[in-house]
Amino acid sequence: MQALGISLIIHIFYFALTLVVGYLQTRNYNPSIANGWTEVEMLQSEVAFGTVGSPFFMLYSFIGVALISAFFIFFFRKVVILKKG
Fold it and tell me: Does residue 4 sit in helix, strand or coil?
């Protein structure tokens, strides 16, 4: 159960950090309009933002991080028990 909690915390931290970095980059963006007039290019008729990935990637990532966390918890407990005994 601890491993699932650790995995959840890591994933929430990752998403929060990604959102903050994206927000700061968007907020601090200053387009150069003056330099844009020297070269004129045709724009595409469709625009897409972001990427599309498998929805199972997040599930696999969550389970993978939980398994790695469980391994470290198990290993840490064995080391603590060996030092005590």
Answer: helix
Residue where the block lists tokens 């599930």: 59
Dist CA 3 CA 10 (whole Å): 11
DSSP designation for 75: H
**Nearest by Cα to 59 from 3, 20, 8:** 8
Angle at 56 between CA 53 and CA 59, to 5 degrees: 125
| Residue in 56, 79, 68 with CA at minimum distance from that of residue 10 | 68
Tell me the pTM: 0.64
Tokens of 16: 């929060």
Task: List, for residues 19-40, the tens digit of each pLDDT value.
Answer: 999 999 999 988 777 666 666 6
Q: Are 3 and 67 spatial neighbours (Cβ–Cβ below 8 Å)?
A: yes
